[in-house]
Amino acid sequence: MIALQQALWSGRFESGMDDSTLEFTSSLSVDSKLAFYDVMGSLAHVRMLKACGIIPAEDADAITSGLKVILGEVKDGSFALDYSLEDIHTNVEFVLTSRIGPAGGKLHTGRSRNDQVALDFRMYLRDEALAAAEAMDGLMMALVKVAEDNGDTVMPGFTHMQHAQPVSLAQHMLAHAFRFSRDADRFLDAFRRMDKCPLGAAALAGTTYPIDRRMTAESLGFKEPTENSMDTVSDRDFVNELAFCAAQAAIHLSSLCEELVLWSSQEFGFVEMDDRYTTGSSIMPQKKNPDIAELVRGKTGSAVGALVTMLVMTKGLPLTYNRDLQEDKAPVMDSMASVRSCARMMSKVVSTSRFDKVRMAEVTSRGQINATDLADYLVTKGVPFREAHGIVGAAVRHSIESGRNLEDMTLEELRGFSDRIDEDVFEMLPVKRCMERRDSYGGTSPGSTDMQISQAMEQIMSRDETIRQERQLIGNCWKSLSE
User: Fold this and answer.
1) Each residue of 50-107: pLDDT tens digit?
2) Catalytic residue among 15, 78, 160, 440, which?
3) Which pLDDT score, from 0 to 100, does residue 248 have?
4) Does 281 qualify as catalytic in the annotation?
5) Do 88 and 73 form a contact (C-beta atoms < 8 A)?
6) Rounded Cα gap, residues 71 and 113, in angstroms
7) 114-153+167-206+225-360+451-467: what fold?
8) Which residue among 281, 341, 454, 462 is the active-site one?
9) Could you state, in order of their start, the residue ranges of all structural domains in the chain?
């Protein structure tokens, strides 16, 4: 049986937990990752207790000195975990008390594990959100660099996986880039909403001690304290939101990977991935498998699963704290780490891949992909679009039956479908010209994609500055608390 005094809540109980209860309820294998944040939160808390005169200065100084020693051990990996204790908070407090004596027991004055764990997890996820936004921007930058080199590289644009209209490779890569830009923005938006300090909410109703919640919030780099103590300890919308951000980013990653897997096949032949990010077959010597892209695509399931786990876990909880919330950490920790890792790997895959411009142009020249441009041409000659659509549909049918592309038909053949067609139609039909003429805002022309590249770079630089400022603020807080 576990020793009674090893549980922070043991006063009410005559006997300790059964070993099976401890094993079942322990969260140490997961929340040990919060050790650094737990110590930092405690350093800020004891600083406030001292400043407000809630505990004697000499006790506060002893606690602070003891916590700084533990912080050093956490940083260098020498802090020893006792798995007979149920969580990281208990580990830190018991080690502190065993080293400095009864003064260590005063650390928990004016707080509960309920606000303590909410604090630790928010601080952990703040760092994760910044790192995830940075990883998204890294992948976005790799895509932008491909776009910079391929403003005039023509390829088929697809709808329903059928050739639709000619586009540039730059436009296609930028489409993915702006998806990841929104993902990065979502992570930073989530950061801003979780940037409120839970410490001081205590168990659920606040505390009778004259604490200064704004002081602790400022010490830990938060914008402000949370507004309502009951909401603070019971809600995990900040976790759910990050789980969604990770799942959405994973879905965007999966879409990119799906295309690269298809494009690397012999049927497409659009791209060859670098040897460093592919594997071979144990039996078929000719194989070059896009395993990184496939693994990233496969990992999407766990990210979506983490979101579902969090939504179901929190859907029916009454106010305030319930032990169900102990299960909030592992799913989101795993999904955030996975998405960040996937984005970094795909940055390498994209930046080292070789895109076959000749093959793309060859494929684009097939399949009457310029049919819309012929319809648009007729509109400029005064034909209503719906009528033009029917005319071109008949021309396409003839083109397919004769085995020739629209631009290879004679003027006489084309005029057989409409007498509005003149010699100038042949200036409009080459597929590269079709791509170049789409110069509307956000379109696929080189001029338009150049503008998109500039916009993408501005977004990356703006976020980079935001991330730098937030990290500097938090880093300064850590430095102030630990010195």
Assistant:
1) 999 999 999 999 999 999 999 999 999 999 999 989 899 999 999 999 999 999 999 9
2) 160
3) 98
4) yes
5) no
6) 19
7) Fumarase C; Chain A, domain 2 (1.20.200)
8) 281
9) 4-109, 114-153+167-206+225-360+451-467, 371-429
Q: Would you place residue 196 in the very low, low, confident or very high pLDDT band (cuts 50, 70, 90)?
A: very high
Q: Which two tokens stand for residue 256?
A: 């990119």
Amino acid at 341: S
Cβ neighbours of 266 (radius 10 Å): 5
160 labelled catalytic: yes
User: CA 143 to CA 146: how far, in whole Å?
Assistant: 5
The total number of residues written for the chain in this structure: 483
**Looking at domain 4-109, which CATH architecture does it have?**
Orthogonal Bundle (1.10)
Distance from chain centroid for Cα 123: 17
Q: Which residue has the higher pLDDT, 7 or 211?
A: 211
Task: Tell which residue, 137, 145, 197, 133, has the closest CA to residue 173.
Answer: 145
Q: How many whole angstroms from its chain centre is CA 258?
A: 18
pLDDT at 6: 55
Instruction: Report the alpha-carbon distance of residue 33 to residue 390 in Å, rounded.
Output: 64
Q: Which fold has domain 371-429?
A: Ribonucleotide Reductase Protein R1; domain 1 (1.10.40)
Q: What mean pLDDT value characterizes the chain?
A: 94
- One-letter amino acid for residue 465 of the chain: E
Name residues whose C-beta falls within 8 Å of residue 184's C-beta, 6 or more positions apart in sequence: 132, 133, 134, 136, 137, 140, 459, 463
Whole-angstrom distance, CA of residue 92 vs CA of residue 94: 6
Q: Are strands 354-355 and 271-272 parallel, antiparallel or unpaired?
A: antiparallel
Mean pLDDT over 354-358 rounds to: 97
**Is the model's pTM score more than 0.85?**
yes
